[in-house]
Specification:
Helices cover about 40% and strands about 15% of the residues. It has helices spanning about 45-55, 80-95, 105-120, 135-140, 145-150, 150-155, 160-180, 190-200, 205-215, 220-225, 270-275, 275-289, and strands spanning about 10-15, 20-25, 30-35, 60, 100-105, 125-130, 235-240, 260-265. It has an 8-stranded mixed beta sheet with strand order 1-2-4-3-5-6-7-8, sandwiched between helices.
């Protein structure tokens, strides 16, 4: 399969909801927008961009606001889900097409779920990778085991301390995310980890990424939990995710009646990088139908 660097990826700045977003683009055809999560950036999709472009899609992989080469507005409020989904609406309109396929992992998946509810007229198909529907998450997080799995999110609410902890000792904790949480330990090369660390080392980048958690525990999650979508939906889930249990997959058809679930047994949270061939096959088959 073609890698991202082999398909003529081009880079541009797109004006979104009051910010400029860096977007990596490749291919021509119906648009597919790929939304990364914490603590990554557009390059998390390095294994998907080429195959999607080869299959006849126009691929847009933005750095979400606050990340990497995109703008980092100050304060917490700019990272409310309302602004995050408005950014994606602006990207869809930027394609010049009436609708787009939206694919999201982790926080990108939370944004994708919310976008589906807020902008149904701009959505074609929806693909979620290891990101819960917020209604189901808020039900499960009140008790073990999901309560224990999500303890880090409470820590991220604290001022300053999370930034200091993640950056200490040459970003040791951040590096451990990529070396210790994948089920397949060779998922990320040392070069890729260094690239992520360099991105998160930019001034204000750690605080901006943590503000996704800080800005949305109230009204942001309330916005996300009410989402219902009639769009065709594919949920791809690595079953060994240490942060998000498989119980979050229960009764998803209450929120997305046209959902199908693709479980991958032996991989964890970073599913698009841990199970490249299986994810690409499921993704391409679903979008091509």
């Amino acid at each position: 399969m073609t890698a991202a660097g082999d398909v003529g990826v081009r880079h541009e700045q797109v004006r979104a909801a009051g910010v400029n977003l860096h977007v990596a683009r490749a291919g021509e055809g119906p648009p597919v927008i790929l939304l990364h999560g914490f603590p990554e950036n557009w390059t998390t999709w390095r294994h998907q961009i080429g195959p999607l472009a080869d299959a006849g899609f126009s691929v847009l992989a933005p750095d979400l606001r606050g990340y990497n080469l995109s703008d980092r507005p100050a304060g917490r409020e700019p990272y409310h889900l309302r602004h995050l989904v408005d950014d994606i609406a602006a990207l869809v309109r930027h394609t010049g097409q009436p609708r787009a396929h939206i694919v999201g992992h982790d926080w990108g998946g939370v944004i994708a779920w919310t976008f589906a509810g807020e902008y149904p007229e701009l959505l074609d198909k929806l693909v979620i990778l290891n990101a819960p529907h917020m209604q189901r998450f808020l039900e499960k997080v009140r008790r073990p085991p999901q309560m224990l799995r999500s303890a880090y999110a409470g820590f991220f609410q604290l001022p300053l301390l999370p930034e200091r902890a993640l950056a200490a000792h040459d970003f040791m904790l951040l590096r451990r995310i990529f070396t210790h949480t994948p089920a397949r330990k060779d998922t990320y090369s040392a070069t890729h980890i260094d690239e992520y660390v360099a991105s998160m080392s930019r001034p204000g980048a750690l605080t901006a990424s943590l503000n996704y958690y800080r800005a949305n525990t109230g009204s942001g999650f309330a916005l996300a939990r009410k989402v219902r979508t009639r769009a065709e939906t594919l949920v791809i889930w690595g079953e060994r995710d240490p942060a998000l249990g498989t119980e979050l997959l229960e009764r998803l058809d209450e929120f997305a009646p046209r959902v199908r679930i693709h479980r991958i047994r032996d991989v964890a949270h970073w599913v698009q990088n841990e199970a490249v061939l299986e994810v690409n096959r499921a993704l391409l088959n679903f979008l091509a139908e």
